[in-house]
Write a structure and sequence with these properties.
- There is one protein chain.
- The protein is an alpha/beta fold.
- The chain is built from 11 helices and 11 strands.
- The strands form 3 sheets. It has a 7-stranded parallel β-sheet, sandwiched between helices.
- Strand 4, helix 3 and strand 5 form a beta-alpha-beta unit.
- Helix 3 runs parallel beside helix 4 and helix 5 crosses helix 7.
- The longest helix has 28 residues.
- The relative contact order is 0.13.
């Protein structure tokens, strides 16, 4: 198949590009900074020559959007909104104008669309959309609006010959440097991976192999359209999530952090506490109903695999540095 990945140079895009290319598919990445023969330049906002890559493709998986690892200032929140909505709109325009439109358009969304809650899990049928919860920072509602507008832009695109799926993805866990797992593992290794603000908030996640398998599953399942949660069936409280990660790496203790300490740490890392404090209790209702079987349904097994791969990558990097230094 020919698969086009707008915005495919980030962590999730790199995971998909690597796996789909290894499976023998022709993968074209739309990026602002093309570096490889399979990269095509685009600006994520206006139609251009890049749209020729969409015409005749089998699948489009749109991953474009400003990263969330930043301070949630009004300027950054607006950039998140504009980059997601504009890129989704223009991908829809390219598909609508194609003589041979793709059969399916998978559009990245986020599990952040659901409400901050502890009492029950959010699936696609009964989950509570966020934005009106009490006792949380006002700007959390804007994150929900970003997700809603992201999905609405795809849903309203006039592409009658292309099936559309919105991927409400939880945190994708992979050992790649710079990803969310890499950050969490670094905290655990430093002894800082304890409960944050009590640690009762739920963490939803998905192993990178299951993320790729779910994308492939949704490409093949012509009967599935609309919003689909991409999350492992075992979300768990942050304190337990980090306890498993520490134990798997071999760190005996993790220092707890109060809310104000989390604020200070997030400021120092130029990130935001919503990523740490919002309770994302999300489960994959539609995937399970459609018969998808997770290879890594539980965090203990997934953490073990990710830690093993992270150790192997570090060992390989160490050997490479030693060879270079010795040469």
């Amino acid at each position: 198949m020919k698969i086009v990945l707008p915005g495919g140079t980030g962590q999730v895009g790199t995971i998909l590009d690597r796996a789909l290319s290894a499976a023998g598919h022709e993968v074209v990445v739309l990026t602002r900074r093309p570096r490889r023969p399979q990269d095509v330049a685009w600006d994520g906002a206006a139609l251009g020559p890049w749209a020729e890559a969409v015409d005749g493709a089998d699948v489009v998986v749109n991953l474009a959007g400003r990263g969330v690892s930043c301070r949630y200032t009004p300027e950054n929140l607006r950039a998140m909104m504009d980059s997601r909505v504009d890129s989704t709109r223009v991908v829809g325009e390219a598909i609508a104008a194609a003589r041979r439109p793709p059969k399916v358009w998978l559009q990245m969304s986020t599990a952040t669309v659901y409400a901050h809650r502890f009492d029950a899990a959010n699936d696609e049928a009964t989950g509570v959309i966020g934005g009106t919860e009490g006792g949380v920072p006002d700007y959390w509602a804007y994150s929900v609006e970003i997700a809603k507008n992201w999905e609405r832009t795809q849903a309203e695109a006039p592409t009658p010959d292309t099936r559309k799926v919105a991927l409400r993805a939880a945190m994708v866990m992979s050992p790649d440097r710079g990803g969310v797992f890499d950050v969490l593992l670094r905290l655990a290794r430093l002894g800082l991976g304890g409960p944050v603000a009590g640690g009762g908030q739920y963490v939803s996640w998905i192993h990178d192999e299951d993320f790729v398998r779910a994308v492939e599953f949704l490409i093949a399942r012509e009967d599935v359209a609309g919003a689909v949660n991409l999350a492992a069936p075992g979300p768990l409280p942050q304190r337990e999530f980090m306890r498993v990660l520490r134990r798997t790496w071999g760190v005996p203790v993790g220092l707890p952090a109060t809310r104000w300490m989390a604020e200070a740490g997030a400021f120092a890392l130029r990130s935001d506490t919503e990523l740490l404090l919002k309770s994302r209790r999300v489960v994959p209702g539609r995937l399970r109903d459609a018969g998808f079987a997770f290879a890594w349904p539980g965090w203990e097994g997934a953490a073990g695999d990710l830690v093993r791969r992270a150790r192997a990558a570090r060992a390989g990097s160490g050997r490479l540095r030693a060879r270079v230094g010795g040469g």
